Model the fold of this input.
Amino acid sequence: QVQLAESGGGLVQPGGSLRLSCAASGNIFKINAMGWYRQAPGKQRELVAVDSSGSTTNYADAVKGRFTISRDNAKNTVYLEMNSLKPEDTAVYFCNARVTRSSGYTGNYWGQGTQVTVSS
Done:
């Protein structure tokens, strides 16, 4: 199995910054992509940012220029640096990884989520 452990959420004032981390562990042969999604109350889960192997990154329009995704492949960890936070960024943030296991099986895995609240 594959486990994703997130950390770094919390309460921050508008204009502030937070850094989320997500470490993958378990039966990992290759991590094909890692990314972040978020879900606000009453809304569907949406893509925030994704980092694919080969250093390709994609961002939701709402976070471009404010959020930065990065990976440490040696640690199987992905980070999300969030700056200039707005109240509308308030959501539960979920880490996602597309992982190939030693058996050759490739699947999508999710973290448990971490709450980010932007409020004064």
Observations:
- The CA atoms of residues 17 and 83 lie 4 Å apart.
- The longest strand covers residues 30-39.
- The chain has a mean pLDDT of 95.
- The two ends are 40 Å apart (CA to CA).
